[in-house]
Amino acid sequence: MAIVDAREMLLEATAGHYAVGAFNITNIIQMEAVVEAAVEKRAPLIVQTSVTPSKFLGRHVLVAVYRALAESAPIPICLHLDHCTDVDYCCRCADSGYTNIMIDASKAPYEENIRQTRQVCEYVHALDGISVEGELGTVSGVEDQVRVAEDEAALCNPDQAVDFVERTGIDLLAPAIGTAHGVYKTANPKVDFERLSRINRILNGNGPRVPLVVHGGTGLPPDTVRKLVALGGSKFNVSTNLKHILIDTTFQYISAHRDQYNPGKLDAAVKDAIRAGVAGWIDLLGSAGKAA
Ligand code: 13P
């Protein structure tokens, strides 16, 4: 169907009180699995890559595969660059055909975050049809090249949100609300629901304007996920969970078929497992059927 940017897709999700799954992939099999799951579920989809896989596989290759898959899929799909701290690489990925770019200058002082984020917005918006995500506050944990220690993490100041949006020109805001990248150390991570709710009221209280992004999806209890979606999270990022599925399935398959040398069967097992995992997330986020 359509190659789309995230803004329109997520404004609809915000209005409809569901979230679009944004799944980080590191290879082509994962990308196919994620797309197949979303097609089966008739769900809008965001495929995303961090900077390392984008450079390892090559951004032109990733965009070419994304385009081939998106053009023949009956659902809207975006290709998003996740947590890029380098303004120039953000611009190069936009040139190559990514449909959304995240500039993550959240570790920099506030004014510097604004400066870098605005720089990316000015470049990317001139290309037309590409949206930009910015982060305010810092999400703890490790996502690719971005590391934030727990005691270093700062939650998003709701009173700064409007200023940040207006001075940068971002389309999507990722507010730090206590979720973290990677595996949570506790079964019930402390998430600041009230903060998300307040930011949503401030930005979207008079109708959807700036979709909100929830980072650190892996390991959140299902009730927490539902509540975050109900309170305004409309892009929901999941990465570590898919990496675990890939590695665990590979290990299990090889352990059970030690005498077999058929990479196609291993790939199929990995693809099936990722597809099933992603389908579960789509159900949880409430986006099944929303692409119909
Ligand atoms: P997890 O790795 O915790 O799922 O977080 C994903 C994410 O927020 C990517 O930006």
The global form is globular
Largest sheet, if any? Answer: 8 strands, parallel
Bound molecules: 1,3-dihydroxyacetonephosphate
Specify the CATH architecture: Alpha-Beta Barrel
Query: What top-tier CATH class fits best?
Result: Alpha Beta
Structural class comes to alpha/beta
User: Span between N and C termini?
Assistant: 11 Å
Task: Specify the number of helices.
Answer: 11
What would you give as the CATH superfamily? Aldolase class I
Could you list the spans in which at least 5 consecutive residues all have pLDDT below 50? none
What does it look like?
- The protein is of the alpha/beta class.
- 50% of the residues lie in helices and 16% in strands.
- The strands form 2 sheets. An 8-stranded parallel sheet has the order 8-5-4-3-2-1-10-9, sandwiched between helices.
- The radius of gyration is 18 Å and the shape is globular.
- It starts with 5 loop residues before the first helix and ends in a 7-residue tail after the last helix.
- The mean pLDDT is 95.
Helix-strand blueprint:
Layout: H1 6-16, E1 20-24, H2 28-41, E2 45-49, H3 51-57, H4 59-71, E3 77-84, H5 87-96, E4 100-103, H6 110-127, E5 131-136, E6 141-143, E7 146-148, H7 158-168, E8 172-175, H8 193-204, E9 212-214, H9 222-230, E10 233-238, H10 240-256, H11 263-285
This protein binds 1,3-dihydroxyacetonephosphate.
